[in-house]
Amino acid sequence: MNEPMKFDPIIVLILVAATVATGVPLNGGLRGQLTATGNVVASFFEWFGELGVFCWRLVRATLTPPYEGRELIRQLDEVGSKSFLLVALAGSATGVVLSLETTDSLSRFGAKSLLPAVVVFSILRESGPIITGLIVSGRVGAGIGAELGSMRVTEQIDAMEASAVNPFKFLVATRVLACILMLPLLTLVADFFGILMGWITSTLTEPISLRLFVDSGFKNVTFNDFIPSTLKTAVFGMVIGVIACFQGMRTTGGTAGVGRAATSSVVLSSLFVILADVLLVRLILMFFP
Amino acid sequence: MESAQNELSVVLRGLRKSFGDQTVLNGIDLTVAPGETLAVLGRSGSGKSVLLKLIIGLQKPDAGSIRIHGREITELAFGKLNQVRKKVGFLFQDGALYDSLTLEENVAFPLRRHNRMPAAEQKNRARDLLTQVGMEQTRDMRKLPSQISGGMKKRVGLARALVMDPDIMLLDEPTSGLDPITAGEIEELILRLQETHRMASILVTHDLHGAQTVSNRVSLLHEGAILAEGTFEELHRSKEPFVSKFLRGDA
After folding, report:
1. Residue B118: inside a domain
2. How far is it, in rounded angstroms, from Cα B104 to Cα B15?
3. Is the pLDDT score of A207 beyond 70?
4. Is the dihedral of CA B177, B183, B187, B189 positive or negative?
5. Nearest Cβ partner of A154 from B94, B114, B160?
6. Could you tell me if residue B247 is inside a domain?
7. Residues of A near B (CB-CB distance < 8 A)?
8. Fewer CB under 10 Å: which end of chain A, C or N?
9. Across the interface, do A165 and B110 touch by the CB < 8 Å criterion?
10. pLDDT per residue as tens digits for the range A39-61
11. Chain A residues with beta carbon closer than 8 angstroms to that of B78
């Protein structure tokens, strides 16, 4: 009967995201706090409403010709190739840490032979995708937020519209598409370097051939372990692209506004990447058990 | 009457625009004939730039009508509005050049998007216009906007505004932030371009001298309305206290 109320972690995350998104600090007395709370709620709904309109315009701009092929290629390079090194580094670090930590834990339970499998599974299923998502939301999110933000405040976006070019098509759609296409590829990079460095770390403490490491690590890996969790990063890419472009395009207030746009792009896109991950992991476990 | 109105390049009637509870434009009526240059004068923050942005559809008016070559643009869908925009050139206050493109690419940008002409021809046209605005060196044309001065940015902005061969030119503070000599050069350039390209122009400025040099007619914008309109001589004869105050530059 008196079941304790359960808090879904997703709801908690949404509430945190909402507070950060609206960013209205509470201050003053009780009345001040009430109005401030009212403002937070109002600007929260306003933010989501505007985001909805933004997404609708984006979908329309993406689907109707002409397509901006050249700009898309430039953005693929900007998002993909230029994030390669960073993602490879982050993947490597994850592999090293995972290997060190699990060697210790597994040897305590006398299950050291499971090390390759633990490293490979952990990297393929979760560490690789989420590390890539967060690293890209930092690098690319800040870049897009600041670039579009400064284009907005220096009237470059107005100039584009005035010369009858749709900035949604030219600036936003190309960036969002580049993020969607590049994230899964970058995840493969993180996976590769993570597993490689995982092997190197473990072979330094206790020599094991790469072949044996890979064989035992991948022995039980199935389609369901690898493909859905790699492809889910396309959704991370969409989240990063959309949030960063949205924050950049709605920038106001000069250079200070550009700074705010860059910060909020990073904060919100990483937050929403984590949120999307929680949702997607649930869905993946449901449909690809 | 209607057909006479349709021959005019720009006709504004009862234009209103507010931001929040601040009314910026409160019933503006203006007309510009082909080949004519109208200067809209006013203090900083009097809504001059907003007026230009309304004319090109970057912002929507709260009420009133905007006709460009007889076409009501406030009711146009996005695609149709873009057709009108292709025939309107806009020089932004600080040039608004695209940071990531060279000067040459900046000027060719509208062509690349709208014209089926071959790339080499687009490049030639861009170079031709850059030469017209006083940038002859190919080396300079390959520079990025961050590498050139404010006056140069306005010149390149002018070249870009001209590239689609507009019938109407909107100039937002073309001489603000420039030293008197560069400002004079820009004014001269605008005059020369008007002669060669024969456009209707609306020039928004607080620079009296510049307006006097470039324009045929003046409108004085004050507190969201047109306070006085006519030639400079007519304005000088005006009995309105603000008009004479503005023309004398009194505080």
Report:
1. no
2. 37
3. yes
4. negative
5. B94
6. yes
7. 150-151, 154-156, 158-166, 170
8. N
9. yes
10. 788 888 888 888 898 889 888 88
11. 166
pLDDT lower than 50: segments of chain B: 1
User: Mind listing the pLDDT tens digit for each residue in A265-276?
Assistant: 999 999 999 999
HEC profile of chain B:
CHHHHHHCCEEEEEEEEEECCEEEEEEEEEEECCCCEEEEEECCCCCHHHHHHHHCCCCCCCEEEEEECCEECCCCCHHHHHHHHCCEEEECCCCCCCCCCCHHHHHHHHHHHHCCCCHHHHHHHHHHHHHHCCCCCHHHHCCCHHHCCHHHHHHHHHHHHHCCCCCEEEEECCCCCCCHHHHHHHHHHHHHHHHHHCCEEEEEECCHHHHHHHCCEEEEEECCEEEEEECHHHHHCCCCHHHHHHHHCCC
Q: Looking at beta carbons, which residues of chain A come within 8 Å of B114?
A: 164
Nearest-CA distance A158 → chain B (Å): 7
Stretch A143-168: mean pLDDT, rounded?
91
Is residue B42 a part of any domain in this protein? Answer: yes
Q: Residue A156: which of B91, B148, B98 has the closest Cα?
A: B98
Q: How many CB atoms lie within 10 A of CB B56?
A: 23
Note if the bond before A207 is cis, omega within 30 degrees. Answer: no
- Cα nearest neighbour of B55 on chain A: A162
Is there a contact between B176 and B48 (Cβ–Cβ < 8 Å)? no
Query: Residue A25 has what pLDDT?
Result: 46
Are residues A269 and A183 in contact, defined by beta-carbon separation less than 8 angstroms? no
Residue B25 burial (C-beta neighbours within 10 Å; 0-12, 13-18, 19+)? buried
Per DSSP bridges, beta strands B37-42 and B217-222 are: parallel
* Cβ atoms A231, A132 nearer than 8 A: no
Q: Is B99–A155 a contact, with Cβ atoms under 8 angstroms apart?
A: no
**Nearest residue in chain B measured CA to CA from A153:** B96
Contact A240, A181 (CB under 8 A): no
Residues A187-198 have pLDDT tens digits of 999 999 999 999
β B71-72/B63-68 pair status: antiparallel
Contact predicate A178/A241, CB 8 Å: yes
What ranges do the domains of chain A cover? 69-287
Pairwise CB contact (< 8 Å): B78 & A165: no
CB B93 within 8 A of CB B49: yes
| Residue B202 belongs to domain with CATH number | 3.40.50.300
**Number of independent structural domains in chain B:** 1
Chain A and chain B share a number of CB contacts under 8 A equal to 54
In a domain, B177, yes or no: no
Q: What is the pLDDT of residue A24?
A: 45
